[in-house]
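subagent[fold] <- orchestrator: predict structure for attached chain, return C-alpha cells only, no commentary.
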Amino acid sequence: MTKQDLLTHLADVEGIDPVDAAETLNTNYAALAMALLRLVRQGLVARYLDPHTGSYWYQLTERGAARLDFLESNPTGDTYGP
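subagent[fold] -> orchestrator:
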C-alpha cells in the first residue's frame, strides 16, 4: 500500500473506518492504522471520533487533496507496510 493508494481511497469516499479500509485495501489493520496516524500528523488526513461507537474515522483534508494531486503528477513510490 502506498501513500498515494491510501490518499486516493480517502478521496473516493467521504470518510473511512480503518477496519473497513484495511479490508478494502487488502492490508492488515496495524499497517493501515500506522499509515493513517502518520497522515494525520502530516495534516493530510483529519481524524474524528464517532460518539455513538467510540471508534475513529478519517477524512482527507484540503492539504491531503493537494498532496494527492502532487503525487499523481510526480510519482515517488512512497510505501507503507509490507
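orchestrator: received. Logging for downstream: The longest strand covers residues 45-49. The mean pLDDT is 89.
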